[in-house]
Design a protein that fits this description.
It contains 1 helix and 8 strands, in the order βαβββββββ. By secondary structure, it is mainly β. β4 and β5 form a beta hairpin. The longest helix has 7 residues.
Length: 115
């Protein structure tokens, strides 16, 4: 599996991808330390998190190669994704999206820098 950040998204997000951080693509399903409550609609919801390097990511056993570094995810969340995924940003509205060859998976990808 591969995740590509577009040039526009990478330029805006690489300030968070520092050597003291790990990147997590969290499926917001109410499970895990970062998911406060599950999304009650049929829509899928993901958050891109930049967490301290020493954060316990034992629930995030899947790794995804990306052009911004290794991205950790819940193993079952990758079932929702295509083999090649893209994170892009709408420059006008600063809205991030997660999409694959089969379409947009999350049109309002949350971005969180956790200290």
């Amino acid at each position: 599996m591969k995740l590509t950040f577009t040039d526009a998204a990478k330029a805006r997000l690489e300030k968070f991808a520092t050597p003291d951080k790990k990147i997590v693509l969290d499926f917001d399903d109410g499970v895990g330390p970062f998911s406060k409550e599950a999304n009650c609609t049929l829509a899928l919801s993901f958050n891109l998190l930049f967490v301290p390097k020493n954060t316990d990511l034992s629930e995030f056993g899947a790794t995804i190669d990306s052009n911004l570094g290794t991205v950790y995810a819940k193993p079952y969340s990758t079932d929702q994704m295509d083999e090649e995924m893209t994170i892009d940003v709408n420059q006008k509205y600063l809205r991030y999206s997660l999409s694959g060859r089969n379409g947009v998976l999350d049109s309002a990808l949350g971005i969180k820098n956790i200290d």
